[in-house]
Amino acid sequence: MFISAESLCKSYGSGDGKNDVLKNVDISLEKGHIGVILGPSGSGKSTLMNMIGGVDRVDSGSIIVDNDNVAGFDDDALTEYRRKNVGFIFQFYNLVPNLTVSENIEVCANISDSPLRLNEILSIVGLEDKKNRFPRELSGGEQQRVAVARAIVKNPKLLLCDEPTGALDFETSRDVLSLLQKINREFGTTILMITHNIAIGDMAHVVYKLRSGEITEVIRNDEIIPAERIEW
Ligand SMILES: Nc1ncnc2c1ncn2[C@@H]1O[C@H](COP(=O)(O)OP(=O)(O)OP(=O)(O)O)[C@@H](O)[C@H]1O
Q1: Would the pTM of this model clear 0.90, i.e. be above it?
Q2: Ligand 1 centroid distance, CA of 44 (Å)
Q3: How far is the CA of 25 from the centre of ligand 1 (A)?
Q4: Over the stretch 78-107, which tens digit does the pLDDT of each residue have?
Q5: Domain span at residue 67?
Q6: Is the CB of residue 119 less than 8 Å from the CB of residue 101?
Q7: What is the position in ligand 1's atom list of the atom closest to the CA of 43?
Q8: DSSP letter string over 14-48?
Q9: Residue 84 within any structural domain of the chain
Q10: Measured in angstroms, how far is the CA atom of residue 47 from the centroid of ligand 1?
Q11: How large is the ipTM?
Q12: Is 39 in the pocket of ligand 1 (CB under 6 A)?
């Protein structure tokens, strides 16, 4: 198993204000698969993803990612793990406004031992002709493509996407989801994606339903739908 997380618990606050955000969550995902975490606002989706991505720490439980004992890492090892192995994509693209498309991508290539080539990435995300533009000169969908390029240029083993289409319209969302599916197929990148949108589950190998910090259902899809065919 590529991701194997067991009995994850995380609380914020203490005493009467204690908020149990993850309650004995188990989650596993095979290498090269797409997993989707579905759940209402506040159910703990981002918290779960942050634990797996080494952004935050669990109170208890184990997290193994590609044989790395992530939950046991000290701060330095956690930083190294994040930088080398994990690409992040968020709802809001978080691009550096005064850097061009190419420069936004190159900044992240520089932290990798085995980055992909800039031209290859620009071609995959379809932004070769816009590589010298600044983020403000791009549409939302194009900005998200830059964010995808930036996340994958370091050739991460794991791509974590937190509501990657949350700010996009239907057509543009489908384009970005297609791009993620293409990356999954071409590079074998394992992808874990958060969404509110149940339809997006159709393009995943596994869907985890999260409610109030607990996994209520795990659905394994035998048939993966191409993102271009998803409807909502
Ligand atoms: N750093 C923090 N300190 C205190 N509480 C937090 C912190 N991070 C998250 N929480 C709380 O944990 C709960 C789960 O938050 P989380 O962001 O994981 O939910 P989510 O399912 O991703 O929600 P959304 O879909 O709205 O992004 C919420 O009640 C939130 O207020």
Answers
A1: yes
A2: 6
A3: 15
A4: 999 999 999 999 999 999 999 999 999 999
A5: 3-94+156-229
A6: no
A7: 21
A8: -GGG-EEEEEEEEEEE-TT-EEEEE--TTSSHHHH
A9: yes
A10: 6
A11: 0.96
A12: yes
